[in-house]
Amino acid sequence: MADTDEAAIHMPSQDSGMHIDTDLSDETQDFRMLNSISFLTDGSQQTLPKRGEKDFEPNPTLFQADVLSASRQAMHNALSYPRLHHPKTQVIGIFAPNGPAPPRSAQKFDMITEESEPSKPAGTGMGVHADSCVYVSNPKGQYFKSIGQADRWNRIWLLPEEALYLLERGTLDIRWPCSEVGCADGDETEDSGIPMSLQAAYAAFMGRSGLTSERFSVYTGLRRLGYTIVRAPGWYDEEEGADSSESEQTTLEKPQAPSLVGIFNQLLQWLYRPTPTTALGPVAGLGIHRSYDNIYRSISIIPWYDPTASPSPPPRTTPPYRVVFHIYKPSTPFKKSAPPTPDFRLAVVNARTHTTFPTSSQLGALLESTPLDPPIGEKMSRQLYMRLRHGYRNVILAVVDEGVVSYLRIADSAFGKEKIYKEKNTRGNKGPWRPRPKGR
Amino acid sequence: MDEPTLPIPISYIAGSYFLFSIDAVTYVRREHHICGVLSGTLPQIPQQNVFLGLPLKLMPEEARLLVEKGVACIVDEVKVQKDGMRSLMEEDRKKYLRELESQGQHAMRLQTDRKEQQREKALKKIEEKKAKARKAEQPPVADGPSEGSVVDLFANDQGSETSRRSSTVAAPYGTAMGVTPATSYPPLPYESSAEQRLALPEVPSSYPMFAHLHSEGYFLSPGLRFGCQYLAYPGDPLRFHSHFLGVSAEWDEEFDLMKIVAGGRLGTGVKKGFLIGGAEKTEGDAGDPSSVRTFSIEWGGM
């Protein structure tokens, strides 16, 4: 029997490892595959390229050398594709190194600060985030539905990660402001006309107001997949995650199912108060036992962890184990002015600086900072393992190793809440896959 | 592919090392087996994560290796941008903008041409279909011409672009495309001044093993997803699968047997060898790549 799992290793077709294997972004793909996509002809035909065949090891054949150089050429071509803006659809943003400011006519800055410290979102008086550093006067296109904040002058202000992402994907043309390029044009506009290169944009936005390269990798990676992703209150290292109030509300809202069981349990405990000690006799107690349930209940003397009972006050989260992003699925209707409850909450960890798994208290505090998300729903109520996997609170850890991101979902499961002995009874009653007694 | 001028400036931004020039990326990959991790969005297909674009993110180990070889230097990019843009001469600024304008016009012309070609092709197809419909009684012939329309557009485009770049004719279509260049030179100078350069990158203690494997001709990439420090490829990862999951250890470090079992088991499961290595401690300093010893562990199928 011990060999069966070993055999499975060598036949990966049935192995779950195969599913991991088919994640194309796991390994470097042959850029020649990219050539077959006709993205230049029209945008509607965008299909993902297939995985290319790779060789086992290099050999000195000319054939292999040719294939390799073709791959490299394809990669070179793909990477040198320019970022162009058609005049009809061109969206121009202007870099504001000093953060949000009214239009030039109102105020003028002449001092250039160094890297702006993460400042609190309050105090700008313009209704936009204080960390915003690029504004767009002519916001066109679908991206501004979920990105940016508008001010009184109808300009959309972008946070550094939003600006950098839009520039990187070739959607936004960011210009240097006149104050930064040393040209003293006296006109009203702050646009110097000089476009920011990708390199300049990275230098300007990366490291600004808490945007690390790890956070940016996660941000762009999820944006590319179509998720909407916004900063969570835990973004700033010195601020306390303000999610806790949210979590308390939900606790109060959804007490139905567990409380019924709880009352029932209390009643039974009061009736048959068991003496949980083996010194005086069997744990189950002496006397007549009419059902197994009672016996199981009386022998469950090991205390268990209940994730629904949150400690008050909630423990402090420690960076980086803190929710920094709220994520919405593409299917979730998202409104910038009133963001709905996020589908996922995500913390970003740099694998190079944090090489150990988070401690129980770090993880506990992180989970405690997320609202209660009990496993309810039609599917959940039927399947025990779905419930256990879903847990009562959950958070996603994005672990970034030098630009390579791995996502882990951490859930607070409640094994103690799942009474297996009760499960059996309910299954026997209604499970269609169980042979029914003959008489019925 | 142009050869970049050495030393290649590696941009240090907020704790990470980046390359923005496509020539530099191709060059270090081809000549020095440094692949880095592409971390940017490809503007031509932005909604996917399989193929990524510039910039190339380098591990500190990779950046250090290139600097030690004298191929590259580390540049404080934030400082370069700030100083450079502010001291930009009016003359250079105008020249740069003119250059961008002509690039934009060129791109516009290319795109318009392409659209024209596509239109013609589409019209031709419709014509053909009509012709076919007319002689519907005749036995159907293999539709070769429609197959032929699937051309390698990208390669074609590249070829024509380079050939046309030499010709300097004003764009007949009036407006120009806006261009976001990848690098900042021009207008900034390519070479950095001494005060903009930074010291050698800080590297983890696994650097000797990294340098050793690299010197043996392996291509290395970050390996956290496979449960190791480095994935070692026998050749360019574009064409080959990795052979080893590399984990570095200190010379006298005692580690749990479980680590070997877990690593060996995992490696065998993904058809790779589990490789453990470290530099022998010598008098004075540790970490000479030539004193590194490596061991590969596999599950024996007896």
Automatic annotation (TrEMBL), chain A:
Question: Where in this protein does the record put region Disordered?
Answer: 1-22
Keyword Lyase in annotation = no
Entry's InterPro entries?
Answer: tRNA_splic_suSen54, tRNA_splic_suSen54_N
Q: Which UniProt keywords apply?
A: Endonuclease, Hydrolase, Nuclease, tRNA processing
Q: Name one GO cellular component term.
A: tRNA-intron endonuclease complex
Biological process (GO), any one: tRNA-type intron splice site recognition and cleavage
Cite a single Pfam family from the UniProt record. tRNA_int_end_N2
Keyword Cell inner membrane belongs to the record? no
Query: tRNA-splicing endonuclease subunit Sen54 N-terminal domain location, by residue?
Result: 76-176
Q: Which GO terms describe its molecular function?
A: endonuclease activity
Q: Which protein family is it in?
A: Belongs to the SEN54 family.
| Designated name of the protein | tRNA splicing endonuclease subunit
Q: Which species is this record about?
A: Aspergillus sclerotiicarbonarius (strain CBS 121057 / IBT 28362)
From TrEMBL, chain B:
Q: Entry's Pfam families?
A: tRNA_int_endo (PF01974), TSEN34_N (PF26577)
Task: Sum up the protein's function in the record's words.
Answer: Constitutes one of the two catalytic subunit of the tRNA-splicing endonuclease complex, a complex responsible for identification and cleavage of the splice sites in pre-tRNA. It cleaves pre-tRNA at the 5'- and 3'-splice sites to release the intron. The products are an intron and two tRNA half-molecules bearing 2',3'-cyclic phosphate and 5'-OH termini. There are no conserved sequences at the splice sites, but the intron is invariably located at the same site in the gene, placing the splice sites an invariant distance from the constant structural features of the tRNA body.
Q: What is this protein called?
A: tRNA-splicing endonuclease subunit Sen34
Q: Where is the composition biased (Basic and acidic residues)?
A: 128-137
Keywords (alphabetical) are: Endonuclease, Hydrolase, Lyase, Nuclease, tRNA processing
Write down any Gene Ontology CC term.
tRNA-intron endonuclease complex
Q: Which family does this protein fall into?
A: Belongs to the tRNA-intron endonuclease family.
Q: Where is the tRNA intron endonuclease catalytic domain?
A: 206-279
What are the TSEN34 N-terminal domain coordinates in residue numbering?
Answer: 8-77
The active site annotation covers Y233, H241, K272
Polar residues: compositionally biased ranges: 157-169
Annotated organism of origin: Aspergillus sclerotiicarbonarius (strain CBS 121057 / IBT 28362)
Where are the stretches annotated Disordered? 128-180
Q: Which residues form the signal peptide?
A: none
The kind of enzyme this is, by top-level EC class, is lyase
Q: Which GO terms describe its molecular function?
A: nucleic acid binding; tRNA-intron lyase activity
Q: What is its EC number?
A: 4.6.1.16
Gene Ontology terms: biological process: tRNA-type intron splice site recognition and cleavage
